[in-house]
């Protein structure tokens, strides 16, 4: 299993906002990223669209309910390459501190086993992880079958900003870092 660094516009985020579930967790992760203490952060798990799509399409009738929405989204967002299923606060903290997002790249059952072993050993905390890739994809498929909506992590964070859910300090840091880019 490989660890990669990705941008917020490359991540298809779960549609689980609003509300912001834990402002304290977001602030904690923002501070970790701001201080560049990346060894304190568990990478978020991501599955490439190229791996996920065949699993989603196997659910014929269910995929029909949201497949057109996904196709339209992917056409409009050509950089969206990965589905995430855990780690919104970590990824948002990274974006708000103008850092790339560390991610476990999951492509196979072997990758799932490695993550599962790390979780069982208490080395990482990852939710949504199941016994194999197909079962883990089931969590993602169930979510999108229910919501039928897609957005990138970047769009999600911009929504948090526009709704006033990002505190002043984090927002100032984000805006100042963006000016440097």
The proportion of residues in beta strands is: 5-15%
Helix content: 40-55%
Query: What's the rounded overall pLDDT mean?
Result: 91
Described by strand count, sense and barrel closure, the largest sheet is: 6 strands, mixed
Structural class: alpha/beta
Q: Please, how many helices?
A: 8
Spatially, the strands of the biggest sheet line up as 1-5-3-4-2-6
Provide the gyration radius in Å: 16 Å
Order of helices and strands: EEHEHHEHEHHEHH
Annotation, overall tally of beta strands: 6
Low-confidence stretches: none
| N-C termini distance | 31 Å
Principal-axis shape: globular
Keywords:
6 strands; 181 residues; 6-stranded mixed beta sheet; single chain; alpha/beta
């Amino acid at each position: 299993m490989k660890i990669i660094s990705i941008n917020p516009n490359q991540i298809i985020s779960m549609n689980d906002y609003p509300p912001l579930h834990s402002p304290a967790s977001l602030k904690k992760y923002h501070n970790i990223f701001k201080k560049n203490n990346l060894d304190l952060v568990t990478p978020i798990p991501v599955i490439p669209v190229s791996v996920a799509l065949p699993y989603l399409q196997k659910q014929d009738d269910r995929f029909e309910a949201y497949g057109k929405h996904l196709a339209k989204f992917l056409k409009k967002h050509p950089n969206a390459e990965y589905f995430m299923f855990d780690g919104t606060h970590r990824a948002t903290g990274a974006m708000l501190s103008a850092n790339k997002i560390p991610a476990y790249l999951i492509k196979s059952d072997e990758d799932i086993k490695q993550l599962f072993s790390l979780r069982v050993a208490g080395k990482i905390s990852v939710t949504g992880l199941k016994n194999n890739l197909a079962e883990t994809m089931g969590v993602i498929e169930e979510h999108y079958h229910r919501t039928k909506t897609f957005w990138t992590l970047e769009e999600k964070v911009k929504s948090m900003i526009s709704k006033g859910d990002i505190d002043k300090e984090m927002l100032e840091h984000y805006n100042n870092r963006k000016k440097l880019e």
